[in-house]
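To close the section, here is one more complete example, presented without commentary so you can practise reading it yourself. The ligand is zinc ion.
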Amino acid sequence: MSLIDNFYIGIDDTDSTRGMCTTYIGAVLLERLSRYSTVLEARLVRLNPNIEYKTRGNASICIELVPHSTSDIGRIKAAVLDAVREYSVFKDRKTNPGVVFFSGRVPDDFRAFYNRTMHEVIEINDAEKVLKKHHAEFHKFKNGRGIIGALAAIGNGFGDHTYEIIAYREKEMWGKKRLVEKDSVFEMDRRTFPFTFNNVDGDKILITPNSPCPVLFGIRGENPDILNDAYSMIETGENVKATVIYRTNQCTDAHLEKVRKIADIRPYSSVILKGSVSGGPIIIPGGHVIFELTDGEDHIACAAFEPTGDFRWVVNKLVEGDVVTVYGGVKADVRTINLEKIDVVKLKRLVGEKNPLCEMCGRRMESAGRNQKFRCRRCKTYKTKKIKVDIKRDIEERMYQVPPGAMRHLSKPLVRDGRYLFPVPRFSLGS
Ligand SMILES: [Zn+2]
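Output:
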């Protein structure tokens, strides 16, 4: 057993929409810190996706390591702060880095704080209170908002998780077109799905980001082994400078919380709520599909926005009275749930009318004169009333989800719900 406590480094909010990526600082540090420590794990932690002050993925990182000696702790801290100063995009108004250091057993307060950051709006002060209570060292750059995510990243660690392998580019390639062979991505997906996921959407590949950041590509999956295999299948036209496998809360639904009533939905939270369709659906300008949901007391709008593609046309087939469970986030006003998934629990039986059938020959009768409404011309039989028939619903009682290209980082792909049906994920490159 080591006599030195585990040491945690939390970092957040170093990047900007125009470049960089906090995970890249992680990659730089993993290399630099190996001189002074044994790294146990690197985590990539996504925070509440409904908060408006961040325009990108709300990603923070935590590195857990064991210093080689207590005298190395000072060197580790210096290396972290140097890297944050070196790589943060300070000129972006919205970039406010924060760093947290912590030695020893992670306090329950940190765990609780992580959970709060998934569902609530947190102020910088809230983070400082928790940090001071536990004598954690923290560093704020500019307004220091990043200490929120830095603390949350250390607090994360329990529950469901996935992994992401991220490949980084040589510096001279940053901002240039990414040279990743599309066919190799489809082949990798074919061979590793469902133990990797969200690699492709239709004919588009999703593993390469769109921003001019240092990331060449990232593959998400159930365990590090499958990611190493998947990584080896990707062909690139440029050098990969480094790779890191992060443990992450991505693809776990960690942001969702069950609520029983609409009145219980908190601003900026993401919820799972059962109710029945009480209005719509309607298609509004921009191609968004909206319906109204009720819990019996209140009503709330549920929206499948245009980028969710065909998911909208599923939602558009709902009718008043259908019972559904919706999954999605709200903004400050708590007026609209932005749908990520929908579980169609009970479809309403829709009844229509048709002309009756002839009892002699079984054919559909035709409309006749006013007195005898329907008749069979062949058998000379008559009936007066239309019959009721079930109208076939072109939607099933099951779970539907937005396509991978429109999925949030935290949303759990449906395929992961079935993962325990498979044997322990195993993969072989052979044959
Ligand atoms: Zn007939």
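Once you have examined the tokens, check your reading against these statements. The chain has four domains: 7-155, 162-248, 256-349+393-407, 351-390. The domain at 256-349+393-407 is CATH 2.40.50.1010 (OB fold (Dihydrolipoamide Acetyltransferase, E2P)).
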